[in-house]
Structure formats: C-alpha cells, structure tokens
Write a structure and sequence with these properties.
This protein is α/β, with parallel strands linked by helices and 270 residues long. Helices cover 34% and strands 20% of the residues. The chain contains ten helices and twelve strands. It starts with a strand and ends in a 13-residue tail after the last helix.
C-alpha cells in the first residue's frame, strides 16, 4: 500500500468546522496527527474530535512539526495512510507547506482538504469585497526594544493604492498568548508617533473582528480612538484597516459592524 498524508483543515472555532470530506478521510486514515499551535480554536474539544473520527489523535507541538517532522511524522507514516488535522485552512501556514513538500520528497503522496479561514470569515463578517484587499500583515507584540515597522509600511502601501489591509495579530498558543484588537491598535499608534506619520490616525476607520466562526463572533467598525476602548471579549482577534469603500461596503459596515455614518465620511468612493 502506498503511503499517503492528507492535511485537513478544521476551520475556525471547534470540531464542527471539519468538512464531511475531511471527516471521511480522517476516519479512513491509519493514524491521525494534529497541531493547534498555528491558530487558536476557542471551543475545540479534542476528546469530542477523537469520538467524531473514531480513533486517537497524536497531538504535535511546534518543534515536532518544524524541527522533528522526519521522526515525529514522516517515519511514523511508513506505508500507512495518515491524516494531519490543522486549524483553519491548511496551506495558509508556511509550516504546513514545508511539511507537504518534505512528505512528497520522501515519496509520501499528499492531499489537502481546505477548511474555513480567517480570510473568508472576515469577508463574510464585514461585507468588504475580496478583490479590494491588498497584502496581509501580521502585527507584532509590543515589547521593549525596537518595534518592527514593516507591517505598518505594508498598511501604508495598501492604503496608498486604495486597498484594504487584513492585519492578523501575533499569537503564541503554546505560551497562552493571543494579541487583542487593542494591542494591534496600540502598535499602529506607536509607529505613527515614532515616525510622525498619520496614515491611519486616531480618527482613521478600523474594523475589529473577534472569534470569527463562533456563535459569539463580534465585528465592530469605527475610529481607531473609539475601538481602542471597545471590549471584544476573548481571542482570537484580527483587524481590518479599510481604504476607500464601495457604497455597498459602507452600507455593510453600518449594518453588520455598527459603523457610525460620521466615521465613514471621506471613505466612500463617489
């Protein structure tokens, strides 16, 4: 029997985000691996997931996948069929792309089953249009020392050419850290203060999203200074920095994200 590794996306919130196709392939697998360090699934219950699949799951840490994949995954597959369960949509994380390439080079046939991602969920929750987004950035945790400014540079470039920015927020699940909307906005504020730039500014329009894919998901749009003090509840969180809006996008932010019409002035394209 030929060896096979199927990388399966679990979606965003809990085990019910697993697609029927993904479930079938996980049930057919001889062994099942999973990692939960690339993203937080707030309501995931691993025991329920094991019951759903009908077999035990070998949970992997970051080092198992990124440093010891040969021993922890590839050698264990041998001539078996294996499933690797991951949060969100599999190939959005570099670590999963690397694992797939290593498996193929080792003679293990690979397959990918997509899952819901933060990219598609943000579009659904905000009503913003997919083709209006530019480069995605990840905002770093504010710590002592020099703050990386490249994410801000990409936000500025996107705004300059009329594109929205999806800003993912730093996360370290294994250390219990998930960056919040407020920290992301403080990063933007701090860089602007250091550089004496006002690309976004306190009166700039921003959108905060919390727990996309969950029943208690929150999406709020407003000025940076206003959202800085909004309570978005538990993680994971993400941000959108909008550029010029189509009138339908503006209406969506009012209806779906509670945007004040005054905050949208100057953002709607004629």
């Amino acid at each position: 029997m030929l060896s096979q590794l199927t990388i399966i996306g679990l979606g965003l919130n809990d085990e019910r985000g697993l697609s029927l196709k993904g479930l079938d392939l996980a049930r057919e697998a001889d062994c099942v691996f999973a990692e939960f360090y690339t993203s937080l699934m707030p309501q995931l219950d691993v025991r329920n997931l094991e019951k759903l699949i009908g077999k035990p799951i070998l949970l992997l840490e970051r080092s198992d996948v990124e440093e010891n994949a040969q021993h922890m995954i590839l050698e264990k597959i041998g001539s078996k069929k294996a499933a690797f369960l991951v949060p969100g949509d599999p190939m959005l994380a570099t670590t999963h792309i690397d694992l797939r390439l290593r498996a193929e080079k080792a003679g293990i046939k690979t397959k990918v089953i997509p899952g819901a991602s933060i990219f598609s969920a943000v579009l659904a929750l905000t009503g913003l249009r997919a083709y209006k987004f530019g480069r995605t950035v990840t905002l770093p945790r504010l710590e002592t020392g020099k703050i990386p400014e490249s994410p801000y540079d990409h936000i500025r470039t996107n705004l300059h050419v009329g594109l929205h920015t999806l800003a993912l927020l730093d996360i370290a699940v294994e250390r219990g850290y998930c960056m919040r909307v407020r920290e992301g906005l403080e990063y933007i504020r701090k860089v602007e203060l250091q550089r004496a730039e006002h690309i976004v500014g306190d009166s700039g329009l921003v959108v905060g999203v919390a727990r996309a894919g969950a029943d208690d998901a929150i999406v709020k749009a407003g000025t940076l200074s206003r959202l800085l003090y909004c309570d978005f509840g538990g993680p994971p969180h993400s941000l959108v920095i909008p550029s010029k809006l189509h009138f339908v996008e503006a209406e969506a932010l009012k209806t779906l994200a509670g945007a004040d019409p005054e905050d949208l002035k100057g953002y709607v394209s004629p």
